[in-house]
Write a structure and sequence with these properties.
The chain has 298 residues and is mainly alpha-helical. The protein has eight helices and no strands.
């Protein structure tokens, strides 16, 4: 008579087979997540860019329509412009000064190596006006103004204020986005012009009093090579950069989900997306300008 002595060994998985099975499952999960992310990410990116484009077009339409019909909310525009100026002016100035000094140092060293020290003013001044001023102003606006816009609209979104406005028949784009768009463009223009002056003046002072440069040479070489087209290009960049920062901040704020954590994620995404778009658009503007208006010399 056979007596059962315990559970059969063959009914239990071997101890050595547990590790490889778990490893294969983990690798499979990672592979599935990676393939899914690759498939989802381009679609999400295109949807985000499309929403930002549509929001920008609708905001511009309402902006011009309300100005033409005298229904533009000027009070909201003034309040937003004052808020943006208070938020971004001081950081922009504090960044513009070292930018101008750094460019002056680098171009003075390069000009000294090639024996063209008299061109230091033209090089540093043109760089500040063409690239430094609009980028510095736009990046500071993205970090300070764009994040504040996104946080404001995102908090309203999670408190369902946006839904309440739509239920009452209030156009959210018309009431909230268009005034911010106009304020962002105006403040961006002002900040860019101020950054041009501060950056150039900081480079001039450093070149004159620290690097023992000639004041007349610094100013005359800059005046010889700088053109009105350079300043016009900078102002066009300021308008476009201000619109980009404002629209991206508004779109990220209005699409915020998931409570306070979702607002924080939207603010982070707003700053990153704004800076990436600013860099890409700046390259496009610079290249198109150089192709359309080529220079014969430096």
């Amino acid at each position: 008579m056979a007596i059962a002595s315990g559970p059969q060994r063959g009914s239990e998985p071997a101890a050595g087979e547990i590790g490889p099975a778990k490893d294969s499952d983990a690798v499979g999960e990672i592979g599935d997540w990676g393939s899914g992310y690759v498939q989802r990410h381009p679609k999400a990116s295109l949807e985000t860019v499309g929403e930002q484009f549509v929001l920008g077009v609708r905001s511009i339409q309402w902006l011009f329509a309300d100005i033409a019909t005298r229904r533009f909310p000027y009070r909201e525009f003034v309040e937003q412009a004052a808020f943006m100026a208070r938020t971004a002016v001081l950081p922009t100035l504090l960044v513009a000064i070292p930018i101008g000094v750094t460019l002056s140092i680098q171009f003075a060293l390069l000009a000294g190596q090639v024996g063209a020290t008299s061109l230091a003013g033209a090089a540093s001044g043109l760089t500040v006006i063409r690239q430094g001023a609009p980028l510095v102003a736009a990046i500071l606006m993205a970090a300070a103004v764009g994040s504040a816009i996104c946080a404001d609209l995102g908090s309203r979104q999670i408190r369902e204020e946006i839904d309440a406005m739509e239920v009452m028949g209030v156009q959210v784009v018309r009431r909230l986005v268009s005034p911010r768009l106009a304020a962002g463009i105006v403040v961006s223009l002002a900040l860019t012009g101020l950054t041009c002056f501060v950056g150039f003046f900081a480079g001039y002072l450093y070149n004159t009093f620290v690097q023992d440069g000639t004041p007349g040479s610094f100013v005359s070489t800059f005046a010889s090579f700088a053109t009105v087209g350079d300043f016009i290009l900078t102002m066009i960049k300021a308008v476009v950069f201000g619109a980009i920062v404002t629209i991206v901040g508004c779109q990220k704020g209005l699409s915020a989900k998931g409570g306070p954590a979702g607002v924080a994620n939207a603010v982070n995404a707003s700053v990153v997306a704004s800076i990436l778009l600013l860099m890409i658009v700046n390259v496009v503007f610079t290249q198109v300008y150089e192709l359309a208006f080529p220079r014969q010399g430096f």
